[in-house]
Amino acid sequence: MRAIDLRSDTVTKPTPEMRRAMYEAEVGDDVYGEDPTINRLEERAAELLGKEAALFVPSGTMGNQVAVLTHTRRGQEVIVEAESHVYLYEVGGIAALSSCQVKTIPGVRGAMDPAAVEAAIRADNVHFPRTGLVCVENTHNRSGGCVLPPENVAAVAAVAHRHGIPVHMDGARIFNAAVALGRPAAELVAPVDSVMFCLSKGLAAPVGSLLVGSREFIAEARRYRKLLGGGMRQAGVLAAAGLVALEMMIDRLADDHANARRLAEGIAGIPGLRVDLETVQTNMVVVEIVDERWTAGAFVQALRTQGVLCNDTGPRSVRLVTHKDVTAADVELALDAIARTVKAGP
């Protein structure tokens, strides 16, 4: 039986077009700037995001950490949303690599109040660290893939820029946000100074992310990528899949969103489970388990025996993520398995 893998969109397999492009890729030494496929990918990424330049990195975490290193100086403070990936899931990289401390602000579905951001910016006082960077995340993972309202991003960036502070966006799934809103990704990231986005999630490339920003910023970021071991020589074989992803995989994200909506609506009708349908805006569904017989961990294990893979995100919550390797038929099979599992009990 083929498992229906709803753990994450990171589990996507490369398409036949990607595999062919990888096989045929023209390559060179990227550290010398001589890999033509890498160069084309970086140019295309900058163009799509409306920025001057881009840098190919192995992962989204490296992209975010390179951005923090490039924007900040040792001993500064970075303002982040309290449930953000850069704070929770990157191994303390802001402290370990940039020697900066973090100031967290609780958000509403990932969106920080601009007034709270302004209040968190440090005054010029010898006792305080200087605020060096503000980070936002779009879509917001811990909020179940919610899209940041464009006006919120613009307002937060305006506050930061008024104080001379740059803004970085963890846009790992920025194209999900763009498709959900029906607006160009470049428009959504226009207010911020740098953006990281992933090729290896919903866009289904096997490896890689892009960091985009000004030419000056990317030139400096390239040095930090090298520091972290991200200079990958003949990496055009990876970039080739990324080019296919950008040309062929963005518009189809709408299918993932439709499948997530169907999944959420089906689960909402199952006694013992609850879904806030207002948060199902892209390709994620967060399920609250209200049936007191179940813990999230036990529920995940029980579903695994039914061929449905997912992850728990708390003692009584589970996250399901749709992607290009999950079909509409798979969603119906998953709903049947979930209903059977809840009814049977642990």
UniProtKB/TrEMBL annotation:
Q: Name one Pfam family in it.
A: Beta_elim_lyase
Cofactor names from the entry are: pyridoxal 5'-phosphate
Q: Which residues carry this modification: N6-(pyridoxal phosphate)lysine?
A: 201
Give an example GO biological process.
glycine biosynthetic process
Q: Which GO terms describe its molecular function?
A: L-allo-threonine aldolase activity
Q: Which InterPro entries match?
A: ArAA_b-elim_lyase/Thr_aldolase (IPR001597), Low_specificity_L-TA-like (IPR023603), PyrdxlP-dep_Trfase (IPR015424), PyrdxlP-dep_Trfase_major (IPR015421), PyrdxlP-dep_Trfase_small (IPR015422)
What are the Aromatic amino acid beta-eliminating lyase/threonine aldolase domain coordinates in residue numbering? 5-288
Recorded GO CC terms? cytosol
Question: What keyword terms does UniProt attach to this protein?
Answer: Lyase, Pyridoxal phosphate
Q: Which family does it belong to?
A: Belongs to the threonine aldolase family.
Q: What is this protein called?
A: Low-specificity L-threonine aldolase
Q: Cite the source lineage.
A: Bacteria, Bacillati, Bacillota, Clostridia, Eubacteriales
